Structure formats: C-alpha cells, structure tokens
Amino acid sequence: MVRRLRLRKLFVYLWVCAVILAPLRSSALDLQSIEQAAADYRNPNEHLEEMFRAALLDTIHLAQYAPDGTAYIKTGDIPAEWLRDASAQARPYLYFAKDDSDVRKLLRAIIARMVRYLQIDPYANAYTLDYRVWEEKFELDSLAYPTTLAWSYWKATGDASIFSGDFSTMLDDVLITMQREQDHPRDSRYRHRELLNGTGRPVGYTGMIWTGFRPSDDACYYNYLIPSEMFAVVALGDMAEIERDVYHNIVKAREAKALRDEVQRGIQTYGLVLVPKYGYIYAYEVDGLGHAILTDDANIPSLLAAPYIGYTTPNDRYYQNTRRFLLSQDNPSFFQGHWARGIGSYHTPDHWVWPLALIVEGMTATTGYEKQDVLSQLLASDPGDHLLHESFNPDDPRQYTRQSFGWPNALFSEFVMTQIQGTAEIPMGDTGDLEFRSE
To answer: Which residues make Cβ contacts (< 8 Å) with residue 261, sequence separation at least 6?
Structure first.
C-alpha cells in the first residue's frame, strides 16, 4: 500500500513537471544559421576559432523561450536578466536576422519581454523569468538599450512588426521617465539605499538626465553620467525616428528630439573638461555644479565606447583626446600587467582588466595593428575554457571573476565578425545631425 502511494506521488510529480516544462521544451532554441556560422568559421589561429565559436553560441545557451511567447536571457551565472546585458547579448544575432526567420522570431520575443519589463517598472534594471524585479537600480542605459536594440533590429531586417501598441506605451514610459529625471531634486521620488542619503549628491540643472547607478551597477558619485547621457542622445534619436516614420506621431517625435537636443547641449556644456597634455576631454561624471570625475569604467556605455554606441566618430577630436587619456597611466582605472593592459572597473578587484573594455578598444581602433594587438590580449585572457569573463588579473589570467558572463562573449563575436572578418557594422542610431562644441 505504501509503495503504491509513493508510486502515485511520483507519477503526479512527473506529470506536473511535464506540464510545466513542456512549453519550454517545445520552444527550445534552434538557430541553424548561427550554429552553422560557428561550425564553418575558419582561421589560421586555431585558438581564435575555438573562442569565436564558444562566444557566438553563448547566447543560445543562456536564452530560452518563456511560456508567454517572450524570450528570456539570463546574464550568466546570476539567475536574472539585465536589460543592458540582454540587449548586448542579443546584438550579434542581428547579423543573421535578415536571412533567418528563426533568429527574427527570437529577437522579436526578446524585445517583447523588455517592453513588458519597462511597463512594470522603468526604474528597474534587472528581472527574473517570472517578471519579478531583481534590482531597482535606476540606470539610464537600461532605458536606452531596448530602444536602440529595437531600432537596430528594424534597420537590419526591415521588420516593423515589433512596433506594437505595447511598444508605443513603452516609448511613452521611457520618455516620461527621462523627462522627470531631468530635474531629479524637484520632480523625482526615486530613492535607493545605496545612494548618499537615498537620493545622491546635490546636482544642478543641466538639461541632462539624472541617473542613480553606473552600467557596472555601482552607485554614481556624481549623477550626470556622461557615457549614459551620450547613449540617451542616441536612443532619443532612434525614438524620434520610430515615432515619426512608424507611428506617424509628429508630436511625440518632436518631443523626443527636443529632449535629445537638451541632453546634447548639457553634455557639450558641462561634460567637457580642459586637461593639460590632452586638451578638452569628456568627464566620466559631473554634477552641474563644477565638479567632475576623470576616469572611465569598462561597462558599456563607457567613454571609450562613444563611437561604438553611435554617439560620435572615432576620429572626432574630443573623442581622440579622451581616448588618449583613457588608455594612459593618467587614467586611474587603466591597468597594465604581463598579459594585458586596459580599463577595469571599480566593481571588481583593483588592477584587474575587463575583456569588455579591451573589445571596445578594438571596436573603436582606427588601425589594423591596434585591432590585432587587442585580439592577442583577448586570446591571452582565456583561462582554458575558451570563454571571456568579467575581469581578470593581467599578470595571471587564470584568476578571474564570473564563471559565466554572457555579455563579453557576445561582444567578442561581434568584434570578430566586424573588425576581423570585415562584416559591415549594424549601427545603434544616427546622430549625424548633432551639433558638437568647437574649441
């Protein structure tokens, strides 16, 4: 009798598991074009072959369809999806989307989930599979990333079906939140225990958008984070184009463009600092009251990544001045060891280098020599699993943080495709009509 009861319980348990897991099993990822691209990749450097294949396939291993038809991408060894990370993890698959309907389906499902996230809480930066807020660290880039991903998908495929009524509502939420945070002390009720006094340090009005946290998830010291302001400029330009050309809403398009122009004037007025030996360079953070931090962080958006995110060009003189400073010992976040040299993060051990920053250096390099130099350092960072990690000791790459971290692997696959193989880059936006300050 006892045995029959146990068997019955086991049967019920297995049946419940089958019912719950069936939707996930039936919608398992099957992306033939990406798997074929990984299998077909050839390079005289066998180590590069192995690392590229592992990097390109990494998002397949971290993504899954959910029962509601959306797609969820966990960041790696943390059971949550970051809006920023997931957007970056999905980005290399844009290069296959035009010719592969399964890839388009996945990207549409990824974007649809982000739309729901931002309607739940535009101040949250990370969510779980069941739509619970994992963290509510307000990071301006978390509003920009889904917008630019959708714009890039549209431009890469010509598929405007992602622009639903829900997407329009998401754009409204993003714009309203950005406008509210232009005058944080007066208009915002956002508070977080990791910020000074819950609200952050005093700021002056600049036209830029206040943000509580950096893309590293660390609290800002000064709350106008220039790289995120740059990315907001790109995203607001994308939003204006979508409103105008897809939704045919001229009023909203003008509103987005007006905010974009206000943020841009703020960057050019408050974000540039005159530094001996370098000239005018972009600060990392400012407060609008005359204070600035001169450094960078490996997480993207970063100052080093300004051309990659579409804000400026690699040859822009202010960017070149800033780049020379960032890749020098004058930058307090630049570290050098036996195997690598590059930018780290205050989020990880001091003097450790981040592959993300190395890849961005290669993505924004203007010479083939620098690209190859970066590639050599990235290959040297491999601790033996052929994957890129969060950060590593440049004197001993076997010491690293994050066993699984999808973002640098996705970015590495994009780096190899565009900078080594010569595939045309897919932009994040078009800021060609922006006005930049002249000396």
So the answer is: none
Give the integer Cα–Cα distance in Å for 404 and 409. Answer: 10
Token pair belonging to 183: 């005058």
Residue type, 366: T
Q: List the one residue out of 133, 226, 238, 110 whose CA is nearest residue 175.
A: 238
The b-or-e profile of 98-108 (16+ CB within 10 A means b, else e) is eebeebbbbbb
pLDDT in tens, 319-352: 999 999 999 999 999 999 999 999 999 999 999 9
The terminus-to-terminus CA distance of the chain in angstroms comes to 89
**Residue 386, both tokens:** 């052929």
Give helix 83-90 / helix 101-120 axis angle, nearest 10°: 170
Strand positions, DSSP E, 218-271: 224-225
331 contacts 384 by C-beta, under 8 angstroms: no
Report whether 206 contacts 269 (CB < 8 A).
yes
Cα distance between residue 340 and residue 429, in whole Å = 32
> Residue 8 is encoded by which pair of tokens?
């019955």
Q: Rounded to whole angstroms, how far apart are CA atoms 74 and 76?
A: 6
Which of 99, 100, 86, 96 lies closest to 58, judged by CA?
86
HSE-up of 82 (CA within 13 Å, CB side)? 22
Residues 231-247: pLDDT tens digits? 999 999 999 999 999 99
In angstroms, how far is CA 1 from the centroid of its own chain? 58
Distance CA 227, CA 392 (A): 23
pTM of the model: 0.93
Per-residue burial over 204-219, b = 16 or more CB atoms within 10 Å of its CB, e = otherwise: eebbbbbbbbbbbbeb
And the tokens for 361? 């250096």
Assign 325 to helix, strand or coil: helix
Pairing mode of beta strands 272-275, 224-225: unpaired
Residue with the two structure tokens 């966990």: 74
Point out the residues of the chain with pLDDT beneath 70. Answer: 1-28, 438-439
Closest CA to 326 of 306, 311, 308, 312: 306
DSSP string computed for 300-335: SS-STTTTTTTSS-TT-HHHHHHHHHHTSTTSTTEE
Domains and CATH numbers, the chain: 53-420 (1.50.10.10)
How far is it, in rounded angstroms, from Cα 331 to Cα 328?
6
Token pair for 432:
């060609």
